[in-house]
Write a structure and sequence with these properties.
Chain B: GO terms for molecular function: ATP binding; ATP hydrolysis activity; phosphate transmembrane transporter activity. Chain B: One of its GO terms (cellular component) is membrane. Chain B: This is Phosphate transporter subunit ATP-binding component of ABC superfamily. Chain B: InterPro entries: AAA+_ATPase (IPR003593), ABC_transporter-like_ATP-bd (IPR003439), ABC_transporter-like_CS (IPR017871), P-loop_NTPase (IPR027417), PstB-like (IPR005670). The complex is a heterodimer of chains A (about 300) and B (about 260). By secondary structure, chain A is mainly alpha-helical. Chain A contains 13 helices and no strands. Chain A has two domains: about 10-60; about 85-310, MetI-like fold (Orthogonal Bundle). Chain A is about 75% helix and about 0% strand. By secondary structure, chain B is of the alpha/beta class. Helix content of chain B is about 35%, strand content about 25%. Chain B is built from ten helices and ten strands. Chain B has helices at about 50-55, 90-95, 110-120, 125-140, 140-145, 160-170, 190-200, 215-220, 240-245, 250-255, and strands spanning about 10-20, 25-35, 40, 65-75, 80, 95-100, 175-180, 205-210, 225-230, 230-235. The radius of gyration of chain B is 18 Å and the shape is globular. The termini of chain B are far apart. Classes of the chains: A mainly alpha (about 300), B alpha/beta (about 260). At the A-B interface, helix 8 and helix 9 of A face helix 2, helix 3 and helix 6 of B. Adenosine-5'-triphosphate binds near residues 19, 25, 43, 46 and 51 of chain B.
Chain lengths: ~300, ~260
């Protein structure tokens, strides 16, 4: 405002500038819209392919069998198509992973955001990010060749392929995701809220637990959702270290296959396109999609319930 | 409490304050805070009013590198609030604060008021219930919220939130309450509410308030201190300051010639 008053170019010139600026704004808007649409279309495309390929599968196999049979052996002579063993494998490994990643990730976030000095935070964060960058194959072999043997020292009956070892390693792998997203959420809590707590005579710990954490709940839930998605979708660690035997069990001391482990196993095998075995991975993929989707919806609802209002 | 005898509740003596970046924000400031009186701090923006206020409850300790020099004595026990050996948490247990922007916690109305008691380890439910009710009544909020104590505090209006923060600060029976421009984010009606509230509170405790609003200082305070560029220019009874100030600078500021 003040600058135009200072210079006051002729009206026509100022109008011309506006036209140009409006044009640029429009172009930017259209580009942004296409980017947003692209993401949406890709998602729709994925769902479309999943559904069409899976519908081929469901022409041969009844949905009832798929959802209730406790045996999954599509590649065998005596083929069974019950998804339950893959679901139990996925849920068990995810449960083990999250029961490690959620508590440790949360505590790490609280420490980094509320207690660590600036210097500590600046040196710990890159290490966490490094952990994120390690290829998951490495974690898989780490589980198989290091963690499981270690666990076998405690429990000699533990089979070489089990869900506990890879579950733990997955948990470690997910800690940095949860810690870093939750820490961002806690740091976003405005300082005046902390000051209010300190002014009441609260300690650092009381402030962190009673004020900052509840204020950051929605972001912390987002961190958990990210962790859950990572756990459910993780492939290599379980494919390598949990064995690839679909078994209907929730006992982490047994080996099992997860949905994702099954998908890579088939996708990397030499099954002809269009065969029932090949199509089965799309049916499995659809289940994976639904599980992730349900968790995201739940997370979304939880976040809305706890939406930040400072 | 003795109503006619004038007791000093706290006093700043030759207080200097340095921010972490080296800024010297307070220069040799001295000021008495009288018991059961309201003392107003006025002065142009940036003169150090908030800085001074926040020394009383050691708020500056939250940020590394800040440094105090001098004393703030708390009577009757003559404790130097700023002494190294004095735990800031102990100080904040005796001196509470209300901020410029209402800052309720993400908790229910009840839990907001109970917060100070909870951090002090109060377990008895009936004791907390009583204190919460008393504090809400003291902050003239009880009638508006008594049927929805479990509602989230954010659902209150701005003025109600500020009264909630006052109730929160009252619930622990502080000896002194610090107010940093408590009405500057509020509409005129909410402002009048809070002013009346503060005038009532001084029977129980001593009040130090920073305000930008000179009418407000004249209306509610018993004593007024004028600060400029980190220095205490003049301190006197409010009537005196507003009718017959001793210093030219004070007069210029009050009459609006400056600031
Ligand atoms: N964190 C800080 N670091 C360095 N200097 C600061 C900091 N906070 C405030 N100051 C400086 O200290 C001086 C006093 O600031 P203060 O906030 O106490 O003023 P004030 O009188 O409360 O002003 P206002 O009326 O605008 O609230 C100012 O010059 C300000 O720039
Ligand atoms: Mg201020």
């Amino acid at each position: 405002m003040t600058t135009t008053q200072l210079k006051d170019p002729p009206i026509s010139k100022r109008l011309a500038k506006n036209i140009k600026r409006n044009f640029i704004e429009r172009v930017i808007e259209i580009i942004l819209m296409f980017a947003a649409l692209a993401a949406t279309f890709i998602t729709i495309g994925i769902v479309y392919i999943l559904v069409t390929e899976a519908s081929g599968f469901f022409k041969e196999v009844s949905i009832i069998e798929f959802l209730t049979s406790r045996q999954w052996s599509p590649l065998f002579e005596d083929a069974h198509y019950g998804i339950l063993p893959l679901i139990s494998g996925t849920l068990t490994t995810s449960f083990v992973a999250l029961s490690i990643a959620i508590p440790i990730g949360t505590v790490a976030a609280i420490y980094l955001s509320e207690f660590a000095s600036h210097k500590t935070r600046e040196s710990v964060k890159p290490v966490l990010e490094l952990l994120v960058g390690v290829p998951t194959v490495v974690f898989g072999y780490f589980a198989l060749l290091f963690v499981t043997p270690l666990l076998q020292k405690i429990n000699p009956d533990l089979p070489t392929f089990n869900m506990l070892g890879p579950g733990i390693v997955m948990g470690v792998m997910i800690i940095p995701y949860i810690a870093s997203v939750a820490e961002d959420a806690m740091r976003a809590v405005p300082m005046n809220m902390r000051e209010g707590s300190y002014a009441m005579g609260a300690t650092k710990f009381q402030t962190a637990i009673r004020v900052v954490t509840p204020a950051a709940t929605s972001g912390i839930i987002a961190a958990y959702i990210l962790g859950i998605s990572r756990a459910v979708g993780e492939t290599m660690v379980v494919a390598i270290a949990a064995g690839q035997q679909p078994t209907f069990t929730f006992n982490p001391l047994e080996g099992a296959a997860t949905i994702t482990a099954y998908i890579v196993q088939v996708a990397m095998g030499d099954l002809p396109h269009g065969s029932l075995g090949y199509q089965s991975i799309f049916a499995a993929g659809m289940v994976l999609f639904v599980i992730t989707f349900v968790f995201n919806i739940l997370g979304h609802m939880a976040r809305k319930r706890f939406a930040e209002r400072y | 409490m003795a109503q006619n005898k004038l007791n000093i509740k706290a006093e700043a003596k030759n207080l200097n304050f340095f921010y972490a970046d080296g800024t010297k924000a307070l220069k040799d400031v001295s000021l008495p805070v009288y018991e059961n009186k309201i003392t107003a701090l006025i002065g142009p923006s940036g003169c150090g009013k908030s800085t001074f206020l926040r020394c009383f409850n050691r708020m500056h300790d939250l940020y590394p590198g800040n440094r105090y020099e001098g004393q703030i004595l708390l009577h009757p026990d003559n404790t130097n609030v700023l002494a190294k050996g004095v735990d800031p948490i102990e100080v904040r247990m005796r001196i509470s604060m209300v901020f410029q922007k209402p800052n309720p916690f993400p908790k229910s109305i009840y839990e907001n008021v109970a917060y100070g008691l909870r951090v002090r380890g109060e377990r008895s439910k009936s004791a907390v219930d009583d204190k919460v009710e008393e504090a809400l009544k003291g902050a003239s909020l009880w009638n508006e919220v008594k049927d929805r104590l479990q509602d989230l505090a954010f659902n209150l209006s701005g003025g109600q939130q500020q009264r909630l923060c006052i109730a929160r600060a009252l619930a622990t029976d502080p000896e002194i309450m610090l107010f940093d421009e408590p009405t500057s984010a509020l509409d005129p009606i909410a402002t009048v509410n809070i002013e009346e509230l503060m005038s009532g509170l001084k029977n129980k405790l001593s009040i130090l308030i920073v305000t930008h609003n000179m009418q407000q200082a004249a209306r509610i305070s018993d004593y007024t201190a004028y600060m400029y560029l980190g220095e205490m220019i003049e301190f006197d009874a409010t009537d005196k300051i507003f009718t017959n100030p001793g210093r030219k600078e004070t007069e210029d500021y009050i009459t609006g010639k400056f600031g």
